[in-house]
Amino acid sequence: MKFYAELVIYCILIINTARVFLNKSVKHDSLVILAPIAIILAVANCFANGISMFEIQLVLLAILVFCLNIPAFIRNRNKLFIDYYSIPMKISCGIASFLILLSFIFCSINREVTVNVKKSNISERSIAYEGSFKNGFTEPEIFSHRTAFFHEYKSNLIIDSSKNVVVFISDKRGDSAAYKPYLQLLAANGYTVCTFDFYTNDLNWNYQSKFYKATRSYHLCNESLNKPEEFSKNLAGYKYNVYVECKGMIPLLQEIYGKDCKFFFVSDGFSSESVKKFVAENPELSTGSFYLDSIPEYKTTGYGCVEMTNPLVAKKLGEKRDKHGFITKYLVLKTSNAIRNAWSTL
């Protein structure tokens, strides 16, 4: 879905810049309105999918196209006719069109690899909450700030999905979005898999931003890759935050699945130490646990299935785009084995 959202914006931008070469007759320049629409969609895309190089590129291109179209936009608002487009305007739009096409090619080559939900025979649902760990979480009002997001991936072959549930706690360098293909494929193996993303103000992630949902994974990923000493210094605080999240999600899980439900916990990266501690302290809640960072073949520990979800980060880590999802399927296999071994002893 992310790539298709980007594709729509690219189409809007290219239509806007190409119009100067296609319009021959005297008319109102009505297509100029696409320029501000592209900016709105590009910014909305950042909030919906988080900040990455692709989203930043789109925002910058949209701003460039909007700036080129300011004179035409003013003429359109004043209902003036266009006799012809000037040579500088055509040159500028030609350069902009070239940059848009170049960016689109780059985006296409490095696009995410998605899982076919229908073929996998799974269903998905999401629930948003407002609140904090200090005051608790409730259903949000219409215009309230959403601070927690529950995501569930369930096999349609499950008869009773409330007995045993797999709970995944992500490393925050990727959030659950970086692990989505893994969660979907794990659910397709016959499980109910769920995860939470928390963006509350009462947990400190060591940077100032009002838009945790859009910026946190980008910030932590950038810190880990480019400022490893600073990341190591902050790691103890990040692990504590995950432990707080584990405690805070239990009432929500019991509200969704019932107080008698027990959970199999899976985690990755710096979250694993916190999850181990939580499981050891609350054995009555757990049917077992598994840690992705214990798999030697898994080379992008802590960043998620970036070979599928973010090939640019994968390249930074020395890995390639995996269009067949080989390593993700291997993670699912190892996790499924661990779950079956744990549940067979119950």
Structure summary, number of beta strands: 7
Mean pLDDT, rounded to whole units? 86
Q: Roughly how many Å apart are the termini?
A: 39 Å
Order of helices and strands: HHHHHHEEEEHEHHEHEHHH
Largest sheet: 7 strands, mixed
Low-confidence stretches: none
| Rg (CA only) | 23 Å
User: What topology, given as strand order, has the largest sheet?
Assistant: 2-1-3-5-4-6-7
Give the proportion of residues in helices: 40-55%
Q: Can you tell me the overall shape?
A: elongated
Number of helices: 13
Beta-strand content bin: 5-15%
Overall SS class: alpha/beta
Notable traits:
346 residues, alpha/beta, 13 helices, 53% helix
Kindly summarize this structure in a few lines:
By secondary structure, the protein is α/β, with parallel strands linked by helices. 53% of the residues lie in helices and 14% in strands.
Question: How would you characterize this protein structure?
Answer:
With about 350 residues, the chain is α/β, with parallel strands linked by helices. Helices cover about 55% and strands about 15% of the residues. It contains 13 helices and seven strands. It has helices at about 1-20, 35-50, 55-70, 70-75, 85-110, 115-120, 180-190, 210-225, 230-255, 270-280, 305-310, 310-315, 325-345; strands at about 120-130, 135-140, 150-155, 165-170, 190-200, 260-265, 285-290. A seven-stranded mixed sheet has the order 2-1-3-5-4-6-7, sandwiched between helices. Strand 4, helix 7 (about 180-190) and strand 5 (about 190-200) form a beta-alpha-beta unit. Helix 3 runs antiparallel to helix 5 (about 85-110). The longest helix is centred in the C-terminal third of the chain and has 30 residues, at about 230-255. The radius of gyration is 23 Å and the shape is elongated. The protein starts with a helix and ends with a helix.
